[in-house]
Amino acid sequence: MSKIRIGIVGYGNIGRGVEQAVMAAPDMELAAVFTRHDPATIHIRDTSAAVLHVDQAADRRGDIDVMTLCMGSATELPVHGPLYAKSFNIVDSFDTHAKIPEYMAAVDAAAKENNTTAIISSGWDPGLFSIMRALSRAALPDGDDYTFYGRGVSQGHSDAIRKLDGVKNAVQYTVPIDSAVAAARSGARPQLTARQRMTRECFVVAKEGADRARIEREIKSMPHYFADYDTTVTFITEDEMAANHSTMPHGGLVLRSGNTGENRHIIEYSLALDSNPQFTGSVMVAYARAAYRMSREGNHGAKTVLDVPAVYLSEKDRATLIREIL
User: Fold this and answer.
1) How many CA atoms lie within 13 A of 80 on its CB side?
2) Is 8 exposed, middle or buried (0-12, 13-18, 19+ CB in 10 A)?
3) Which of 123, 166, 210, 278, CA to CA, is 20 to 30 A from 133?
4) DSSP string covering 66-91, please?
């Protein structure tokens, strides 16, 4: 049986995570990595795959079953998601929650017009956490949702800071507020704002001569990322960044507190990740498998994790999954 041929656009942290997951998948193979840089400067682990410039992607349409878009959500995916959906089945990890509906509409139009399948916003939130919120709400309709992230590195938020003028490098940590977590777990169903649930810590390496006060203002006022949270910005050196912020752990939990009659119930799902990008890449690869299967069935257009049957995510067949885990 032929393997699913995967392409990667963008060989950063998530791109390398996707590559690692593909190499571990028995039903997949890496066809090519596409980069905006000089391909000769990109050294991938899977030496059997090609490294090409992004301008060559359209020429490989027939060689790639699913293209994984390993790009930032702030400025890159809104442009490139619809563009690549015109030529390929795609999977991405678009994570600007407030903008998902408009992004999905743009990708959906491109995918339906060109008979491709696009699974957007895969990963763990949006992604696995979204599924757990849906399941928990269905099981406990009389209840409240609580989502806490961290303590850990947010790739999307870090990328958004790095896009600012004058920023050379940056890392952002999301930190849950312990008292808020305890209140949610108590069953009292407190009403908590985003600011009451989490804080954000930003560590920034500024370019020489950059206006640090302006950078700090732009970070703290950034809508959808920092404006709704208590945010601290600390400027550090490149050496401090390398020494203290080179790993990318993350995690969090989704909790629903609800009632059936006079009884209280708590549903909780948590993740503790040594590597945020490796885990995100692994989830994207599972959804690449689903995108391939849905496309072969003629199920085209933009999809989210809420639209994908769980059996499409595994390399095992439906009968095996039913026997082993149902």
Assistant:
1) 25
2) buried
3) 278
4) EEEE---TTTTHHHHHHHHHTTS-EE
Tens digits of residue pLDDT in 229-268 = 999 999 999 999 999 999 999 999 999 999 999 999 999 9
Q: Distance between CA atoms of 243 and 143, rounded to whole angstroms? A: 44
Which pLDDT value is given to residue 74? 84
pTM for the model stands at 0.91
With contact defined as beta carbons under 8 Å apart, do 152 and 252 qualify? yes
CA distance 178 to 223: 25
Which pLDDT does position 156 carry in this prediction? 85
Residue 292: CA atoms inside 13 Å, Cβ hemisphere, count? Answer: 23
Tens-digit pLDDT profile for residues 68-126 = 999 989 889 999 999 999 999 999 999 999 999 999 999 999 999 999 999 999 999 99
Element counts in the chain: helices (H) and strands (E): 11, 14
What residues contact 317, with CB distance under 8 A and at least 6 apart?
none
Structural tokens at position 121: 């916003």
CA–CA separation, 220 vs 229, rounded Å? 8
- Angle at alpha carbon of residue 286, lines to 63 and 14, rounded to 5°: 80
Q: Which residues contact 83 (CB under 8 A, 6 or more apart)?
A: 110
Contacts of 307 (CB under 8 A, 6+ apart): 119
- C-alpha–C-alpha distance, residues 290 and 313, integer Å: 5
